[in-house]
Amino acid sequence: MAITRRELITTIAMTGGTAAVAVTVGTGTLHAETEGPRIPSAAVGLLYDATVCIGCKACVAACAEANGETPDTRGDSLHQAPTDLNDLTRNIIKLYKPTDGTPASFVKRQCMHCLDPACAAGCPFQALHKDLESGIVYWTADKCIGCRYCTITCPYHVPRFQWVGYNPRVTKCELCSHRLAQGLKPGCTSVCPTGAVIFGPRTVLLTEGKRRIKETPGRYYKDKVYGETDNGGTQSLYLSRVPFDDLGLPELGEESVPEKTLRWQRRFYQYFALPALLYAGLVQVIRKSVKGHVEEAHEHEKETGLRAQL
Ligand code: SF4
Ligand code: SF4
Ligand code: SF4
How far is 224 from 149, CA to CA, in rounded Å? Predict the structure, then answer.
């Protein structure tokens, strides 16, 4: 059961904090799926092709504008030039520039809208959740208690926490759902001059990614669309000529992070049972041994007539 921030604060006030701990423990494990993540019926997403991105950052400015963010000019009062995702920046363009002469590449980073989001699995109050139809991963302000677990559990380091203000928020891309509701495209895809980032249904984007790979053999790293199966699958998909790992997209395998965690949890408890049984057996042996020694001592006392002096 989800609990709002207000309910939590009321609970803490009424119980002196102990109930809040119980609630946290009670809702801590949210992911119980075992058959792999399901693809939402109307899953939408982004396809970013790093090989055609020119690094103009029009998408960064459009993202800030579309989301009503104050342009991030900290560190440079004239230009909006954030170096990474932050509490004012949901979308960033980075440059991967190797020193060994191999090709450089831009990379666009925003939420991956994972099919099985670790941020949501790690959030004790379901402040982050995945919409079952569109698959967009949302953050809900009134459920967030500011624990920042989501910033740790996300394997792509996407959610960013606001460190100022009395009611801090978590910032991440929500696929411009407010624009989608108006029949508009996400801010970033509406301004990209080269079509490096496009929006659409995940199935269409995947088909488009595979079409590009087929039509230009040797152009793309491993002829692979990152996100088709990586980390259980994502709704932000990537094409690149350089290894995805170099662009901050780790090789996570096909199993999602929450699935992996669940498997390890099960294994831990499975193997924890054996030492527990051994321990219980050991306790029985010790108890029997002690009992035997006590009886033996009593027998000895009887035989020798030895008694404590009263
Ligand atoms: S990329 Fe991170 S924040 Fe986005 S859905 Fe996946 S786990 Fe959540
Ligand atoms: S979809 Fe919207 S919020 Fe997400 S990166 Fe693009 S412009 Fe930013
Ligand atoms: S607007 Fe398009 S080309 Fe320009 S940086 Fe963004 S993704 Fe790359």
Answer: 31
